[in-house]
TrEMBL record:
GO cellular component: extracellular region
Protein name (Swiss-Prot/TrEMBL): Xylan alpha-1,2-glucuronidase
Organism: Butyrivibrio proteoclasticus
Residue stretches making up the Glycosyl hydrolase family 67 catalytic domain: 112-436
GO BP terms in the entry: xylan catabolic process
Domain Glycosyl hydrolase family 67 C-terminal: 437-658
The reaction(s) this protein catalyses: Hydrolysis of (1->2)-alpha-D-(4-O-methyl)glucuronosyl links in the main chain of hardwood xylans
A Pfam family matched in the record: Glyco_hydro_67M
Domain Alpha glucuronidase N-terminal: 9-106
Enzyme Commission no: 3.2.1.131
Family: Belongs to the glycosyl hydrolase 67 family.
Active site: 269, 348, 376
Top-level taxon: Bacteria
InterPro entries with a match to the protein in the record: A-glucoronidase_C_sf, GH, Glyco_hydro_67_aGlcAse, Glyco_hydro_67_aGlcAse_N, Glyco_hydro_67_C, Glyco_hydro_67_cat, Hex-like_dom2
Length: 661
């Protein structure tokens, strides 16, 4: 079953066959029977054998290393400290996960070129929850998946094999401690994941994860009491419904000891939820929170709730407002084991959006950030789009929810308001392709999200360089080239797609390639409102009032087109084509220039990539080259469709006289 071949991503330790290396391991204070400690030891043994070389040890040829894993209670939860000298190294931690993460850090630092004696570091994870959300369906398909089929599910069965173990290793190596295995849109067979049809297999899978310190989570169907229990309603305040869930929770947690809890998409895009019964989101989330509480379970409740049957003629309803409108009034009403999971922007993972005002807008509720490394709107893992620069902007955004500790990173880590349950989740970009992520270079986002969720202080560049060093053996000049390609890629993608924060303009449903009006007259609330004079949505106090959902400092800035950051100008304002930007260019000229530049820069990316031929494995070279060919085709389509569209609407020519159709 499944694809039989897969790469080792960033854990491909090099000279594994050399056995003149002796690494003695001592475990002090930890339970030697702990599976997590065993995983750490196993990884260290094989990893060090591969990595130890004259470059790594201080005295050439001295490969006898004494390794100690020691329990030190003073070290923070899931944190670690590494202490080393020329022939010994200690990994200190207060819990199993900390020891495992310390082991991976040691291997990473040595693989990245540090000498053994230089590996002295202490780390505490920035976020308590660091999660991957799979949108895998039980028939094997993946919603918004661009790397093959699911490696968890095939023909409505669960697959557990060596690949599952490697997946768990990769996730643990970057600090992931929770995985939701099934799509948030829970239908058909997936509804039965909480029944004895699947308990044995989910348990087997969750045990593999547990060996690597990862808890398993399931997405739930809110209508399960109807679909599985034969009840007439799924009203969260109905006694029979509550009773059904209580029994269910008892059964599920009894069968699945490694289960962390559930993720719920309710009242969203056709999924059932409490609104059907005139109940609130808090009623739904708290009811489930209460039934899982006796087992230490948590409920992660998504805030992606909006009216998806809007009339495009309606200028008052604003999808961007919806999250805040539905959730802010109940701030403080959510129970302690409930977390609200909030997408980074108020719309849907566009290449540029403002940060959701709900993050930090809520001050008395557990909250976590949701981002998407599956490149649904950012090029389907065909176009190169390294997302860490975007995530760093999100994390660094000042919400003004407090005087200090007011960034998104402060809020979602739990620091700002003292929440124990908090963190980051990514909609994952993996599938059963040999290289896991379709495009070999898209693995930088997989690696990057994990690293960033563990340490939000890391820079995009540090993460990119680590990933490159661990994945390829490149000379410094080539590493520089590839780093630069990754770092520029998001800006380039943004330039040739939708301008200045307006978003969308994508082919409906599929979301790859341009269709400027594709969503303009639809029910999805995703409009650009372009006419012959200008473009953009007025979300100021004279428009939908969305800008007022932020704290004063941000609200004032966004409300005024003169003060609004220009990359978001069209998200917040309807702007005439003749409007002068800070560069001195008119809006229309900016649209033309950025689209010509973006396409040209995509071609440069490919040229730079071509210079790496023979330096990366040929399979990688071919895989990525093919995708660059498609990216350039895509960039040309975007450039020409967007430019022609706005030329035809505005009647204003390009000052530089370039070809517009
Ligand atoms: C997007 C995406 C859907 C997904 C949804 C969600 O709208 O296109 O496929 O189900 O987000 O986040 O739930």
């Amino acid at each position: 079953m499944g694809n039989k071949e897969w790469t080792q991503l960033w854990l491909g330790y090099k000279n594994v066959s050399n056995d003149n290396k002796t690494v003695s391991c001592e475990v002090v204070g930890f339970n030697k029977d702990s599976q997590v400690i065993k995983s750490a030891l196993c990884e260290l043994k094989s990893g060090l054998k591969g990595i130890l070389s004259d470059e790594v040890v201080d005295n050439a040829g001295s490969y006898d290393i004494a390794l100690t894993i020691k329990k030190v209670d003073a070290i923070a939860k899931e944190g670690f400290k590494l202490e080393s000298d020329t022939s010994s190294v200690s990994i200190l931690a207060s819990d199993d996960n900390g020891a495992l993460y310390g082991a991976f850090e040691l291997l990473r630092q040595l693989s990245c070129g540090k000498k053994l004696s230089e590996v002295n570091v202490e780390k505490t994870p920035s976020n308590p929850l660091r999660m991957m959300n799979h949108w895998d369906n039980m028939d094997g398909s993946i919603e918004r998946g661009y790397s093959g089929q699911s490696f968890f599910f095939e023909n409505k069965e669960i697959v557990v094999d060596e690949r599952t173990r490697d997946y768990a290793r990769f996730m643990a190596s970057v600090g992931i401690n929770g995985v939701v295995i099934n799509n948030v849109n829970v239908k058909d067979a997936a509804t039965y994941l909480i029944t004895d049809r699947y308990f044995d297999k989910v348990k087997e899978l969750s045990e593999v994860f547990a060996d690597y310190g990862i808890k398993t989570y399931l997405s739930l169907n809110f209508a399960a009491p109807i679909e599985l229990g034969g009840l007439e309603v799924c009203d969260p305040l109905d006694e029979k419904v509550i009773g059904w869930w209580k029994e269910k929770a008892k059964e599920v947690f009894g069968k699945l000891p490694h289960l962390g809890g559930f993720l719920v998409k309710a009242d969203s895009e056709g999924r059932p939820g409490p609104f059907t019964y005139g109940r609130t989101q808090a009623d739904g989330a708290n009811m489930l929170g209460d039934v899982v509480a006796p087992y230490g379970g948590i409920i992660i409740w998504r805030c992606f709730v909006y009216n998806c049957t809007q009339d495009w003629r309606d200028y008052k309803t604003d999808r961007a407002r919806a999250g805040y409108d539905y959730f802010k009034d109940f701030d403080g009403a959510y129970h302690d084991n409930v977390i609200l999971q909030i997408k980074n922007g108020p719309m849907d993972f566009q290449i540029r959006e403002p940060i959701s005002p709900l993050i930090g807008g809520l001050t008395k509720t557990n909250q976590m950030l949701e981002v998407q490394i599956a490149q649904e709107y950012t090029g389907h893992q065909i176009d190169l789009c390294y997302l860490m620069p975007m995530f760093k902007e999100v994390l660094g955004f000042k919400t003004y929810c407090q005087k200090e500790n007011d960034t998104v990173a402060d809020v979602v880590s739990g620091r700002a308001f003292g929440n124990k349950l908090a963190g980051m989740a990514a909609v994952i970009n993996t599938g059963n392709d040999k290289n896991w992520t379709g495009n070999y270079l898209a693995a930088a986002n997989l690696y990057g999200f994990g690293r960033l969720s563990f340490d939000t202080e890391l820079s995009s560049e540090e993460i990119a360089r680590e990933w490159i060093r661990l994945t390829f053996a490149l000379e410094k000049v080539d590493e520089d080239k590839l780093t630069d390609m990754l770092l520029r890629s998001r800006e380039i993608y943004e330039k040739y797609t939708s301008p200045l924060g307006i978003g969308w303009m994508v082919t409906p449903h599929d979301h790859y390639g341009p269709s400027v009006d594709g969503y303009e007259y639809s029910r999805w609330g995703t409009y650009h409102r372009a006419d012959h004079l200008g473009i953009g949505v007025d979300r100021s106090d004279k428009g939908t009032g969305y800008a007022q959902q932020y704290y004063k400092e941000n609200a004032e800035k966004y409300n005024d087109p003169e003060k609004c950051p220009e990359e978001l100008l069209l998200f917040f304002h309807h702007i005439p084509y003749t409007w002068k930007l800070k560069t001195g260019k008119t809006l229309i000229q900016h649209i033309y220039d950025s689209h010509f530049e973006g396409e040209a820069e995509a071609e440069q990316l490919f040229e730079t990539w071509k210079s790496l031929e023979g330096k990366v494995p040929s399979e990688v070279f071919e895989n990525v080259s093919h995708r660059f060919e498609l990216q350039i085709y895509n960039a040309k389509e975007w450039r020409d469709q967007v430019n022609s569209y706005f030329y035809r609407k505005s009647g204003i020519s390009d000052q530089k006289g370039r070809k517009i159709y």
